[in-house]
């Protein structure tokens, strides 16, 4: 019986997660803890001294030269960037926001985003359906821009130093 108790004790070296999940009486020590989808999601919550800890600045620190230097500088200075995005047939629009995270594939996370984009609408013209473009604007709290849709990244006009 004592072996079964240790298998359900979250702090025991003999803890059995499968048995704990199947047991109707076993409750987590912190009932208000939010569940995660996978174990990798917890790596950011580890203490920095842990060998599996991955700091958020790992990619930014490893960039020394090349096109990602601009992203590194914008990330470290928390400055705004302008991102031109594309869709299948051309330029989709532009996003301006503060760079929060990026990776080597140019996937970007922006905060306090102002987005201006075009939408292709079907309309009637002379009895036939003809496409027309409509420009739209929206404000977003946070936005993930997939690297395959990024055309250009530059500093936002407000963040650029004035040239004399």
Automatic annotation (TrEMBL):
Q: Which GO terms describe its molecular function?
A: U7 snRNA binding
What is the protein name for this chain?
Answer: Sm domain-containing protein
Alphabetical list of InterPro entries matching this protein: Lsm11, LSM_dom_sf, Sm, Sm_dom_euk/arc
What PANTHER family has UniProt attached to this entry? U7 SNRNA-ASSOCIATED SM-LIKE PROTEIN LSM11 (PTHR21415)
Q: Which GO terms describe its biological process?
A: mRNA 3'-end processing by stem-loop binding and cleavage
All copies of the Sm domain together span 68-159
- GO cellular component terms attached to this protein's record: U7 snRNP
Q: Which species does this protein come from?
A: Prototheca wickerhamii
């Amino acid at each position: 019986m004592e072996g079964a108790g240790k298998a359900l004790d979250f702090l025991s070296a003999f803890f059995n997660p499968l048995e704990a999940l199947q047991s109707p009486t076993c409750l987590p020590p912190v009932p208000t803890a939010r569940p995660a989808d996978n174990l990798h999601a917890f790596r950011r919550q580890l203490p920095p001294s842990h060998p599996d800890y991955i700091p958020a600045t790992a990619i930014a620190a490893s960039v020394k030269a090349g096109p990602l230097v601009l992203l590194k500088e914008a990330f470290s200075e928390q400055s705004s960037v302008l991102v031109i995005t594309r869709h299948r047939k051309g330029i989709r629009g532009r996003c301006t926001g503060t760079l929060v995270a990026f990776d080597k594939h140019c996937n970007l996370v922006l905060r306090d985003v102002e987005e201006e984009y075009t939408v292709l609408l079907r309309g009637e013209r002379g009895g036939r359906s003809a496409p027309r473009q409509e420009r739209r604007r929206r404000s977003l709290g946070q936005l993930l821009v997939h690297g395959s849709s990024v055309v250009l990244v530059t500093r936002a006009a407000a963040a650029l130093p004035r040239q004399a």
